[in-house]
Design goal:
The complex is a heterodimer of chains A (438) and B (568). By secondary structure, chain A is α/β, with parallel strands linked by helices. Chain A has 19 helices and twelve strands. In chain A, the strands form two sheets. In chain A, strands 1, 2, 3, 6, 7, 8, 9, 10, 11 and 12 form a ten-stranded mixed beta sheet that branches. In chain A, helix 15 runs parallel beside helix 19 and helix 16 runs antiparallel to helix 19. The longest helix of chain A has 31 residues. Chain B is mainly alpha-helical and 568 residues long. Chain B is built from 24 helices and four strands. The radius of gyration of chain B is 24 Å and the shape is globular. The chains are: A alpha/beta (438), B mainly alpha (568). The interface between A and B is large, with 74 and 65 residues.
Chain lengths: 438, 568
């Protein structure tokens, strides 16, 4: 087959060419294009001869990718927002230990609030600070005559029913942190009550972090739960949106780590050093990135009105990293099975509850008191969490969620069965109450 | 494909000789390595317990969990509805294009293929911008009548979008069956006094039914395997998204994801087998090479046809219109139309970052070339030899129709990662060539079908006479067979090209680095930033244009038989 041979040799050349490049550093990241493109340009200009290669993946996909390729790693750097993803990788032994030069680390404080910026064992390093909050579409709120939100508890406002959007915490490292922040701020029981009520108000639960700002920017939904730079970057790019940090929030570093057995170890270290150095930190101020540096001195050079997490009192929640990463699998799966996968039932139940409450508020009939108690009962059913705090961090259960045993399947089945029964019951009670109040 | 009984006697000598046998062995080995083995590696997880021993406990668990039972039921139910509603649009269109001749027919055929191409993510945004809860249509309804219609909510939305997305499969299959019906059969019935609806019910319908049902089953497979639609509507209680979410979030540790994949594969295989059984019945019913009657269309009928097609197209091309608008927009937020327009998106993808388009052309071009070469070889062996293993070859080459892209991609990572490919010095998964391989494998069923259809129409006696005149086998193949089937080869290549342009499910798992990404990956990357929507949409427009040109050329080259390659 003669026509084949030139084609094959051309292919062989292409394939070898791709592997014979000069020095490079291979980065797995979940950050948006603007962020890694800016850094790629800046880094390559500063270190000519080292090419930056980007593999854009979601946080969890990135973790899966590093696990699947551990026998022969192809990536050098793991670079995402969620600290607990790093915790997971560290526990799996997938991160390399490294100590950046003293003159670089000296300018970065040890902690932001109560949260250590770098890993104590030197496997990952905070390079930027993120807060979590709410972004909204101004046109949308105006069109639907809705007020702007201020804090997490606003998410349970009856008027927002069907107007909110969030991404599933199992799909988005940053949403998981937000969920944890709420759980740690309000406590397990109350936190879940809030989350379940807010879940009933969600119009949609997306499977990508960016699905949330996308839905808010395009005006499909009014208010979204997001990490700060999604909101800030959208404002900077001229979209009709706004963003707020709720008073109770946590401030958490976004980190970078070197992959265990990285094929380009020296280049990887150069990249980490660059990220933590002053020129690297300055890149964060670009309007299309809009993230907060970890170097407090730099805020003197920040654009006007830039939030400074080291000065203003942001937070109010001392985020407990150990607790969060310990029960991560449980919290994510619980959220999925009682909210994401039973979203329709949950949303319907809360819709009925709000209708019943409205009817009860207007009604002057004799049955109002009875209706009110039915509604209270309905609320209880629609905001009940099927597992207590102690169990969620129970060692046996946590281990069961990692392994191949049937425990995980059994618990998940229990949760979603309970959820479905509760929400159906709640809807029944609320509908009955509405009928009485008429 | 038709059963082997239809194959003529071995043409090249009486003995089984080494060349076809060697080609057969090579093909089998290739398909085994790049299709069967990776899939089995993935599905094995669902059948293994902690000690890697065979167990069915995971499947038992699947049926015990209400969530999965719901997902299974929802998938079957929505698949059925998609087929039902899709038929309502597809059958009239099929009848029009197969039975009438009118100006703009190729245009109609091209446009009705476009719904098959909805670029990932931007397609979703465009759908939402047009039909979503704050989309153009609902905002207008709100202004005029003060109410909105939840087109895109829950399972209703999934059925609506999938119907508009997949109806061309039913249309293409039905059209081919219609144009294959021997005109004399209908004429005979007419001369014996059978007219109108009775003619349709007693003669035409039974002859068309197998092709139609094959189209329905193919649509059903695509609908239950479809990942993009439920994800864009945030509807997760279906089998495909459940499998995807579990595998990409939890990875190897989660058995349930693989169990769902296995269930999907079983469902698809069953549908595929059923479709082929029906289709093989159809081959007996029609006379080879027969052509149906094609009438010119005029007057009132033309007006009616025009109206119906315009309506069907207007609805099914709404997302494409949305993508087009989005690609010129800078701000389009809670308004009927974009409020700020710009050409910058095109400058970005054509001049600043042109590699997404270049890569797509390179990969899909190579993949189409490989898929056609392999397809021609396979079709040749199926039709012209009686070697052992033909049925196996046939089955392996058709298998990718039933395998979700994610499964194949995970299989490739499992099998090829960490194993240096001889002569490359790196594993296949770190080069862009892995994308060409996965595209080739996934589109092989289409090209085999195209080559088979083309080769079926070449009588072996032509080849025999060439050989009797002293030409050797290779020369006969190159100088006699090839020119005769070249139309089919080109069509097969174009179909492979067209269906690969916006492939996402395996691409997203396998792209080794951003510079190697094709259009679909480019869209994914752009959609992660607030200003990227426009650029992503512009890439989507490029993909749609590529597909439109490809489809138009296919119809030009292949005429009425263009659709036959979409069959099973």
């Amino acid at each position: 087959m003669r026509p084949w041979s030139p084609l094959l040799s051309a292919l062989a050349i292409c394939l070898t060419a791709s592997t014979l490049q000069a020095k490079e550093v291979v980065i797995v990241t979940s950050f948006p294009k603007e962020l890694f493109e800016n850094y790629k340009k800046a880094f390559e200009a500063r270190y000519p001869g080292i090419g930056v290669v980007v593999k854009a993946k979601q946080t969890n996909e990135g973790v899966t990718y590093l696990r699947e390729t551990r026998a022969k790693p192809e990536a050098d750097i793991f670079w995402v927002s969620a600290p607990d993803a790093f915790q997971t990788l560290k526990n799996d032994g997938l991160l390399e230990k490294y100590a950046p030069p003293k003159e670089i680390t000296a300018k970065i404080p040890a902690k932001i609030g109560n949260f250590p910026i770098h890993d104590a064992d030197g496997t990952y390093f905070g390079f930027a600070i993120s807060g979590y909050g709410l972004m909204w579409n101004k046109n949308y709120l105006q069109g639907h005559k809705l007020p702007a939100p201020k804090e997490w508890t606003d998410l349970t406002n009856a008027r927002y029913h069907g107007h909110l959007v969030i991404s599933a915490p199992s799909r988005s490292g940053t949403t998981h942190l937000t969920i944890e922040t709420i759980l740690q701020a309000y406590g397990w029981e109350k936190g879940w009550n809030l989350l379940l009520n807010a879940g009933g108000n969600m119009g949609a639960i997306t499977e990508r972090s960016f699905g949330v700002p996308e839905a808010v920017i395009s005006g499909q939904y009014g208010i979204g739960v997001v990490i700060d730079f999604f909101g800030l970057a959208a404002i900077a790019s001229g979209q009709p949106v706004d963003f707020v940090y709720p008073p109770l929030t946590s401030v958490v570093p976004a980190s970078v780590g070197i992959v265990k057995g990285a094929p380009n170890m020296e280049e990887a270290k150069t990249f980490v050093n660059y990220l933590l150095s002053e020129p690297g930190q300055m890149v964060l101020f670009s309007p299309d990135i809009a993230r907060l540096p970890v170097m407090p001195d730099l805020y003197a050079k920040a654009p006007a009105n830039y939030p400074n997490p080291f000065k203003t009192k942001m937070g109010g929640v001392d985020f407990n990293d150990q607790l969060s990463s310990g029960r991560r699998d449980i919290v994510n799966s619980l959220y999925d099975h009682v909210i994401t996968f039973r979203h329709k039932e949950l949303k319907d139940a809360w819709g009925s509850i709000y209708k019943a409450e409205e009817a009860a508020a207007k009604s002057k009939g004799a049955n109002v008191t009875q209706a009110r108690s039915l509604i209270a009962d309905a609320r209880k059913h629609a905001s009940q969490v099927p597992i207590d705090e102690k169990k969620a961090s129970d060692k046996e259960i946590v281990a069961g969620f990692r392994g191949k045993s049937g425990l995980k399947a059994q618990m998940e089945t229990e949760w979603e069965t309970a959820a479905k029964a509760n929400y159906t019951k709640a809807k029944e009670l609320a509908d009955k109450a509405a009928g009485m109040a008429k | 494909m038709a059963k082997s009984e239809a194959a003529p006697a071995l043409c090249f000598g009486e003995k089984t000789d080494w060349l076809p046998a060697a080609v057969m062995a090579a093909l089998l080995a290739l398909l085994f390595v790049f299709i069967l083995y990776p899939v089995v590696r993935v599905l094995w997880v669902s059948l293994a317990d902690e000690k890697s021993q065979l167990t069915f406990i995971h499947f038992q668990n699947f049926f015990l969990r209400p969530l999965f039972r719901d997902a299974l039921w929802n998938s079957l139910f929505s698949g059925f509805l998609v087929v039902l509603f899709g038929s309502l649009i597809a059958v009239p269109l099929a009848y029009i294009t197969a039975r009438y001749e009118f100006r703009g027919k190729i245009l109609l055929q091209t446009l009705t293929t476009l719904p098959l191409v909805i670029p990932p993510f931007v397609g979703a945004v465009a759908f939402q911008q047009i039909l979503g809860r704050s989309g153009t249509v609902n905002l207008l309804f709100m202004q005029w009548f003060d109410f909105t219609i939840p087109f895109m909510e829950g399972l209703t939305g999934v059925v609506l979008v999938q119907t508009l997305h997949f109806f061309p499969f039913i249309m293409l299959n039905t059209a081919v069956s219609l144009s294959n019906i021997d005109a004399s059969l209908e004429e005979m019935a007419q001369s014996m006094g059978c007219h109108g609806f009775r003619l349709f019910r007693r003669v035409t319908l039974p002859l068309v039914l197998p092709g139609f049902i094959a189209g329905c089953l193919l649509t059903f497979i695509r609908a239950i395997d479809d990942l993009g639609t439920p994800l864009m509507l945030n509807y997760k209680n279906l089998l495909a998204p459940q499998a995807y979410l579990r595998i990409t979030t939890i990875g190897i540790d989660d058995v349930d994801g693989y169990v769902i994949c296995a269930v999907l594969v079983v469902l698809s295989l069953a549908s595929l087998l059923a479709a082929r059984k029906y289709l093989s019945l159809a081959e007996y019913a029609t006379v080879q090479g027969a052509r149906g009657v094609i009438r010119p269309l005029q007057g009132k009928r033309l007006a009616f046809v025009f109206l119906f097609s315009a309506l069907a197209l207007a609805i099914s091309l709404l997302p494409h219109a949305g993508i087009f608008l989005l690609s010129f927009s800078k701000v389009w937020s809670f308004s009927v139309l974009p409020t700020r327009l710009s050409l910058d998106n095109y400058a970005e993808i054509l001049f600043r970052v042109p590699h997404f388009i270049k890569n797509t052309l390179l990969y899909t071009g190579l993949a189409a070339g490989f898929a056609v070469t392999l397809g021609a070889a396979i079709a040749f062996l199926l039709l012209r030899s009686r070697l052992w293993g033909r049925n196996l070859l046939d089955a392996l080459a058709t298998l990718p129709l039933a395998i979700p892209g994610v499964v194949l991609a995970v299989g490739y990572i499992r099998v090829f990662h960490g194993w240096d490919f001889p002569g490359v010095g790196a594993s296949l998964t770190s080069t862009w060539f892995i994308l060409v391989i996965v595209y080739t494998a996934r589109r092989l069923p289409y090209t085999v079908r195209a080559c088979y259809a083309a080769m079926q129409q070449v009588h072996p006696s032509l080849e025999e006479s060439a050989q009797n005149l002293g030409a050797n086998r290779l020369r006969t193949f190159l100088r006699v067979t090839m020119p005769l089937i070249s139309g089919g080869l080109v069509a097969g290549a174009l179909i492979a090209f067209v269906t690969t342009c916006v492939e996402l499910s395996s691409t997203i798992m396998l792209v080794p680095r951003i510079e190697y990404g094709p259009i679909s990956y480019g869209i994914y990357v752009y959609m992660q930033s607030p200003l990227g929507r426009g650029a992503g949409a512009a890439l989507g427009v490029v993909a749609i244009l590529l597909v439109a040109v490809g489809t138009y050329l296919t119809h030009r080259v292949f005429g009425g038989r263009a659709a036959s390659v979409f069959r099973v």
